[in-house]
Structure formats: C-alpha cells, structure tokens
Design a protein that fits this description.
This protein is of the alpha+beta class. It has five helices and ten strands, in the order E-E-E-H-E-H-H-H-E-E-E-E-E-E-H. It has three domains: 88 residues, no CATH class; 54 residues; 71 residues, Head domain of nucleotide exchange factor GrpE (Nucleotide Exchange Factor Grpe, Chain A, domain 2).
C-alpha cells in the first residue's frame, strides 16, 4: 500500500512517498505561514491505492511545487535586496559628504584667487608680507594634496577637448590658432569626488572665425586701396 505523509515543522516541510519498496524523501526549507501550517494539519497519511487519494497526492505535489517556486522567488528577491542594500551603503559612504566638498572647494577657489592677485614682482613688498604670501602658498598646496588623498580631484582642462560631462562653456573665443571646440581659457576649475562630478569647470572654448567676415575685410581693404 502506497502511503503519502506530509509534515510541516517550524521551519521545514518533509514529504515521504512510499512507492513499492522505494521511499523518496524530499525536504523543503521555508518560513511557515498560517496557511501552510493549516495545510500541514489537514494532511495525514493517505492510502495511494485509493483513486481519490491519488488525486489528492497530485494536488499536494502541485502545492509543494508551487511552494518551492514561491520559495525560490523569495530567496531571489532577498538576494537582490541584499546586493542593492550593500551598493546603497557603499554609495552613501563614498558620496554622502559631496555637499560639504562642494562648499569646501569654493573656499579653496577664493584662496587661489587671492594668491593669483599677488603681483609677480615681490621685491617692493615688506618681509612680513612676503612671509605671509609664502605661508598662504604652502597652505594652498597642502589643501590640494589633502583633497587628492581623499579622492577629490581637480579638473583643469586647459587645451583639452570640451566635454559637457565635466565642463560648462561660459563663452566662445573666435580663433583660427587651434581647432574649434578646444578649451582655451579656464575661468574656474572643476572637481570630482571619485567619479562623481562635484562642480563642472567653467571654461571658454575656441570658435572658428567665419570666412565671410574675412572676405568682407579683404574687400574693404581692396576698396580703400
């Protein structure tokens, strides 16, 4: 007599199927619900020689297959959630202070502007002023070094091709001395935190002088002659 027994424990389901002399044991691990516990209480030992019980066996096996499928989907969702959470935590560690960095680099720019305003010829300056300037230059270098150690990189793209991902065009400079679209002036350096843009570099890009203007100038020169 073939028997089917289904037991639902606290955290596992065991299915025993007696088919002749062969016994198959299948274990499904899952978190029990109120519905599944009631399902386990309802199922006892079934006589598989009874056609009705065979139909019930097929029904229970179908239910178990569906539970397995639900379990696999739940495990997959849990794994995806775990990976997504780890990624979000990593992103927060890397970029959570980006607002602070944005404010900090503005202060660094102000210090640089102050140093750039100092005349190249310092011979007429008093010794205390010279020492003050030297100290400020050392402080600026230390700040830049500290920023780089903390993965804050400066964008100074003079002579590079314009890239809207990292640069912001403020004006165009007509010239034929270089290819159009090159950065010929940097008004303000940009910054990156790891691979994320903190602030774009403010730049001026080259623009080709129109030939029509050249032809008009040549015509005006020839008419004057």
């Amino acid at each position: 007599m073939g028997l089917l027994a289904l037991f639902l424990g606290a955290a596992a389901t065991y299915l025993f199927v007696n088919e002749g002399n062969r016994v198959k044991i299948d274990k499904i691990t899952f978190c029990p619900t109120e519905e599944s516990e009631q399902f386990g209480k309802t199922v006892a030992l079934l006589d598989l020689t009874d056609p009705l019980n065979k139909a019930q066996k097929e029904f229970f096996l179908k239910e178990i297959k569906e539970l397995k499928d639900q379990l696999m989907r739940t495990l997959a969702d849990g794994e995806n959630l775990r990976k997504r959470t780890l990624k979000e935590v990593e992103q927060a560690k890397k970029y959570s202070h980006i607002s602070f960095v944005r404010d900090l680099v503005s202060s660094v720019d102000n210090l640089k502007r102050a140093l750039d305003s100092i005349p190249e010829d310092k011979s007429n300056l008093s010794e205390p002023i010279k020492n003050l300037i030297l100290g400020l230059e050392i402080v600026e270098k230390e700040i830049v070094t500290t920023l780089e150690k903390n993965n804050i990189k400066q964008i100074s793209p003079l002579g590079e091709k314009f890239d809207y991902n990292f640069h912001q065009a403020m004006f165009e400079i007509p010239t034929n001395d270089c290819d159009p679209g090159l950065i010929v002036e940097v008004s303000q350096n940009g910054y990156l935190l790891y691979d994320r843009l903190v602030r774009p570099a403010m730049v001026g890009i080259s623009k080709k002088i129109e030939e029509k203007k050249d032809n008009q100038e040549k015509r005006s020169e020839s008419s004057e002659k």
